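Risk register update: the risk of archive-format incompatibility is retired. Evidence:
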Amino acid sequence: MLNALTGALIRSWDTTNSLILLPQYCVFLATRDGSTGAIVENERGVWIEDAQGEQMLKGTGRHVRLPDFAGHRYGSILRALHHEILINVTLSGPVPNLYVYSKPWYRDGAMIAMCLKQTGNLDLIRDWILGLREPYDRNNAGETEADNLGQALFLISCVSGKSHPLVSRVLEETRRFQVRDPSEGLYIKRLKLTLGLMSVRIPDGGCSGFACASHPSPALVPRSQPISRRQREPLPQ
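Archived output:
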């Protein structure tokens, strides 16, 4: 058993077989001396159960919520996916894959926050969100990506509000992406910013010319342009 971040050895067994039950957050072990053991995670921590007794792994005692999604058609899959999200909440923040990414992305962070909000685990990333000070994550070759602004606002809304120091900076940055003449046939792509503004309860009237890398808002598509079925579909609840 190794530390995923450092590779340091935590515990070892001379096993003949192991069984991973991902939806149950459990690994069963069979050893050469005929004994059995298990590595189990519950809402109180990660536990090792073997011939030496039951012991909680150091550093895993922070409480998390592990819903069983009882009654859901895909409950076992949701438990496994939720576990994957929790594993990738690192000391530096939420990442898509802790083995590949050392720094959080606002895009993935916002998606993870949506999930953690639903499962009651926002406290796991609260400090990271409260510490955000830049409107862009600059993870894509240093680019100041427009959709970062809405993502940042949404993240802030999960644990704070308009008083967060980054909000004013994000609003100032929206001016860089305003389109002077929407009548020229340009799509005004601002869905992510609008979601972020709504999340922190800021009217979006001042940003109606914002162009971001998202789907266009049907209300802002010039009438000469046909509205596709995808643009007519309501946002998922």
